[in-house]
Amino acid sequence: MTALKEELKRQIIEVLNLEDITPADIQDEEVLFGEGLGLDSIDALELIVLMDKTYGIKLSDPKKGRDIFQSVETMAAYISENRTK
Amino acid sequence: MLEKITIQKSCTIEQHRIVVDDMLVWSSATDMPFSDFAKDAFHHLDIDYPKFYKMDALSKLAFLAAEYILRGEDKDELALVLANKSGSLDTDIKHQESIQDTENYYPRPATFVYTLANICAGEISIRHGLQTENAFFIAEEFPEETIFAYADYLLQSNKAKRVLCGWVEYFQEDYRALFYIF
Fold first, then answer.
1. Which residues form the Carrier domain (chain A) (predicted)?
2. CATH code for the domain of A64
């Protein structure tokens, strides 16, 4: 799980072009949207593509996404249980 | 034609040089890619605006030209009239490449949102809080007469106090921005 969280942090930084931020700057339970990293709706779509492309998880229910994308911790937990890749 | 109305300020970005009112304000080695030049020019501004890193090349170019020309300027009722030749073709091609392979079909939302030329005008408006008229024209060359006529109309009809207008062209590392404030 720790390795997955580190991998996720690196991927989030890369796909969302988070300049001047390193994996060490992102706390496992830090809020990703709004405050925290301040991600927006386009970033949310990018994370949906990331889940599909890298882990084979298709998210069709936006309400679920709100919970899954709360933090790196919640993303990693969902991926662990549902990944097909 | 442009001499007929008063040009208050100008900014040119080309060949890795940024010139404001005939004064060189930033330059870098000409062999670096545009993305690196743009990032360095952005850092030189010393502003906190993370959204810049997510923009496509055309929007970065427009953002930088606007940022350098608008420093210290009153932006109250400032309209925006821009033009270019290639529209958003550079980003359109990147988007097309991401959806080319039906077996590996992963369009990038962050790329797709820039597949319209006037998005760069939107980025400038958001950054500077402009809620005024804006227009974006596509033309083979800088359409002086159209730009002049539209800027003049905006000023004469009191739809704007001043107009930021110009040319902002980017296609596969070839770029040029030429902005004026009337």
1. 1-83
2. 1.10.1200.10
**In a 3-state reduction of DSSP, which class is residue B66?**
helix
Closest chain B residue to A49 measured between Cα atoms? B106
Residue A45 to chain B, least CA–CA distance (Å): 6
Reading the block at residue A9, the tokens are 């942090």
- Compute chain B's Rg from CA coordinates: 16
Taking all residues of chain B, what is their mean pLDDT, rounded to a whole number? 93
Optimal mutation site among B48, B52, B106, interface A, most CBs of chain A within 10 A: B106
Domains annotated for chain B, with CATH where assigned, are 2-181 (3.40.47.10)
Q: Could you count the other beta carbons within 10 Å of the beta carbon of residue A53?
A: 16
The count of structural domains within chain A is 1
pLDDT digits (tens, 9 = 90+) for A32-57: 887 777 788 889 889 999 999 999 99
CA distance A69 to A3: 18
Q: How far apart are CA B128 and CA A33, in angstroms?
A: 23
Average the pLDDT over B49-77 and give the result.
Answer: 95
